[in-house]
């Protein structure tokens, strides 16, 4: 893990982040890496929202990983704030390097700093390798994740 | 559904909301309805966060339902904003009345107004009645929901 830095994403990182979102069995059908316009608009929204952390992992000036962390206050569980992880990606060149673990551990540490009581995420039922990965990191598959496309 | 109103929660609604959170097989172990201090602090956080909607359903001046809706911008899916539903509760007196459907339909309509492309939620694997309910409303159980307690 030498020379690896995890830092907030900047607008300059967008092409590399979007390329990683698209280089994925599910992402390939959903993303448009050759038209960054919608991503630039969404990046602006993320930047203005103090509850958002869009992080990148950088090694030797290359973006090799990303995730998004959102802090959600709430009444349940005695007013617990929870952290939600979305959009986890590790560059194809780095898979199996332990970078996924470093990214998730960074997110969990950030969540602790924000005094969250819970970190949660959903993973498509087809991503069985990811499920084993999250269970190894101590996450419990205690819920069903429902989605409704609008 | 006569005389039913869905409106933003106010601080005065907190005792009734917390009583509903606690009147639940899982909530009974997690909530402290006789000490509102942590809920009042969390309510302040919700009020200050423009991405949050804490709603109550009110009938004849009684709070009979609640849910929390959070808008989460993001890069995935071409910069889609998603809406996350949490803390859905219907008062014991109102179960089977269709109020749950009204609440979720209100949340979906709010999500459309905010131009969200997706509405999502997680439900504990033990809540099998809730799963059938969400599937009837068009939600797909496409994901596994992982949680890590901090």
UniProtKB/TrEMBL annotation, chains A, B:
Name the UniProt record assigns to this protein: GNAT family N-acetyltransferase
InterPro entries cross-referenced by the UniProt entry: Acyl_CoA_acyltransferase, Bact_Acetyltransf, GNAT_dom
N-acetyltransferase domain sequence ranges: 4-150
UniProt KW Acetylation keyword: no
Keyword terms: Acyltransferase, Transferase
GO-annotated molecular function: acyltransferase activity
Pfam families per the UniProt record, alphabetical: Acetyltransf_1 (PF00583)
Record organism: Streptomyces amakusaensis
EC class (word): transferase
EC number: 2.3.-.-
């Amino acid at each position: 893990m030498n020379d690896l830095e995890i830092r907030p994403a900047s607008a300059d990182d967008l092409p590399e982040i979007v390329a990683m979102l698209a280089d994925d069995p599910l992402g390939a059908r959903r993303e448009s890496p050759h038209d960054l316009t919608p991503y630039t608009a969404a990046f602006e929204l993320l930047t203005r929202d103090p509850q958002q952390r869009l992080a990148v992992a950088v090694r030797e000036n290359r973006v090799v990983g990303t995730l998004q962390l959102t802090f959600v206050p709430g009444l349940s569980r005695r007013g617990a704030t929870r952290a939600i992880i979305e959009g986890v990606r590790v560059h194809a060149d780095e898979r199996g390097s332990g970078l996924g673990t470093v990214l998730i551990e960074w997110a969990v540490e950030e969540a602790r700093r924000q005094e969250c009581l819970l970190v949660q995420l959903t993973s498509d039922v087809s991503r069985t390798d990811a499920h084993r990965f999250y269970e190894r990191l101590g996450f419990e598959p205690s819920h069903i994740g429902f989605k409704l496309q609008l």
